Amino acid sequence: MLIFALLIITTVLVVFLLIFGLLRLYLAGRVRPESESGQSMPLIQVLVPIKGCSEQQETVLSSLLQQDYPSYKVSFIIEDETDGSSELLHKLSRQYDHAEVLISGRTELCGQKNHGLSYASGRLHQDVGILVTCDGNSIAQRDWLTSLSRPIRNGRALAVTTFRTFNPRPVSVAGVCQAIYGSMLSLLIAIEPKPWGGSTAIKRQLFDLLDVRSYWSRTVVDDLVMGNLLMQAGIRPFFSPVSVMETPLASQTFKGFLSFLHRQILFPKFTNPGLWLLSMVGQYLLASATAVALLVFLSSLLTFSFGLESFAAFICLVTLTGAFVVLHQISPHRISLFYWLVSVLPFIALATYVYVRSLFVNYIDWSGKRYYCGRLGVVTKFESLP
User: Fold this and answer.
1) What one-character-per-residue DSSP string does 209-254 give?
2) Using one digit for the tens of pLDDT, what is the confidence trace for 239-264?
3) With a threshold of 0.90, does the pTM exceed it?
4) C-alpha distance from residue 68 to each of 33, 34, 56, 158 (Å)
């Protein structure tokens, strides 16, 4: 009876989250872009922390500098001139008048990315009306900045968030696992909008009022910290699916995927422990239901013994397969459905492993540094990694 309950509960939860998430995505996507004529076009400052240089870095960063928005500046932030991206960034700043390179220096009290954002946000021009933060490894469409800022400019929102898709090239199981994660998280963010990767826009007055810069200067992660401040102020970010960015994954490996997933799961452990605990329970439920359903159904086929539990196992497997097919449809990238479904079990297994490991880890390894965090993600100490 316990097995039957596990399978039914998992099936019901998956169907509920799928329907609710798709409905929220559909409703968010149906918001018609209004005419920009007559609308205010305030100066926008885009803050982009950079660490290292990938083979597609110029394509990625150039996309941020070729937006159709009429009035914006882009600040690329690096720790020092020895960063691998320094030469490219200075080249772009000479090529584009609205680009600049900021040297933040080494952090002493917080995550290096947060230190860079705190440094740059303390040097905003007084005319900046909207502040945007985004990762330095994602490609933006030409209308990204216009669509991301539109809900703020037309008065519908004070903050806007979006997410990013992952495009593995060449396609590998590890890369597809990350693409599955991207589709799954975009569905969850549609249900409960929260800054988490991709990009976030916030009205300058609200940014100053919430004193986001001060919190950044003490913590290890930027987006979840801003999300917590918005939640405490009773402000729900607007989710903009049309502003989603694309992160190219060049020859992604399992080691690379695990490193990425470790950070994604450990961030909320320190900043949002309730969210971390809830997602961990959900992952354990998904993993155990998948394993039990496979064992029960295969056992029934081998023994020709079919009962209530084998029926529940069949329904659960069909539901889970259908859910991952839907996640495949959400992804805009050309990944074969066969490769996608083959990657589902490795994704579930690796995500479960990372959640188990997160129970015993009290630090975050990120860009050559190990951060030890206290309550709400406040950095207590850090050390450089070899």
Assistant:
1) HTTHHHHHTTBS-SHHHHHHHHHHTT-PPEE-GGG-EEEEEES--H
2) 999 999 999 998 899 999 999 999 99
3) yes
4) 15, 16, 22, 22
